[in-house]
Amino acid sequence: MGQAVRSRLPWKHCWITGGSSGIGRALALAMASQGVSVSISGRHPGALAKVQAEAADLPGRICNLPLDITDSAAVQALVDGWQPEAFPDLIILNAGTHQPDSAQNFSLHQARRLVDINLQGTLNCLAAVLPGMTARGSGQLAVMASVAGYRGLPGAAVYGATKAALINLTESLQPELAEQGIRLQLINPGFVKTPLTDRNRFPMPWLVPAEAAAEAILKGLRSRRFEISFPGRFVFWLKLARLLPYRLYFSVVARITRA
User: Fold this and answer.
1) How does DSSP classify residue 42?
2) Which pTM was predicted?
3) Which of 68, 79, 145 is nearest to 113 (CA)?
4) What is the mean pLDDT of residues 105-123?
């Protein structure tokens, strides 16, 4: 019975950054429930330990690897600590943060924090894992961005900018990595109920639970699709909005934000 459960997913070892809460936590538990060995990283050892305890009776093991991804030396040391045979065959660069902003109260400190974690932190992880992956010519890698990166949205100026950068970065790397045998995928969720979205003070259409998001992501990771995006209806309208000329787009946004 246990072996049948383990065979449902194609990975033996997965590393998830930002694995202590939200989507990362849901992904770790979903994968461990199907027998995958999961390493989770985050800045708070206590929060990581809680996730590990939740998985105590699951077929797969969760290992805690406390890490601040803004510390490039620490990221490199963690990756260097894996023996080649124990290197993750799936890496999900999920760590990120969000803080609503506004033009009236624009904070440089807050902007730098978002850039350091969401963008620079992901770059630190990529710089650490890509040399080994390209040398082996194998592996699967997923980068967590957001539909907020499709087009500028009020209240998410810096957050959206970091996610737009991750979308462009992943699109740029994909062709070269594909030639080298590495499967790179982009994850663009809509609104997912997590501690981060709990900070929002506006209606969030088609809000999905973290567990449903994890299910959608796992389905996408097993597919050949480059982009994993959900929920479908919300993504459809946002992608349509990318085609609008600025005058019409800003008019639509103004009506929505005044509603």
Assistant:
1) -
2) 0.93
3) 68
4) 97
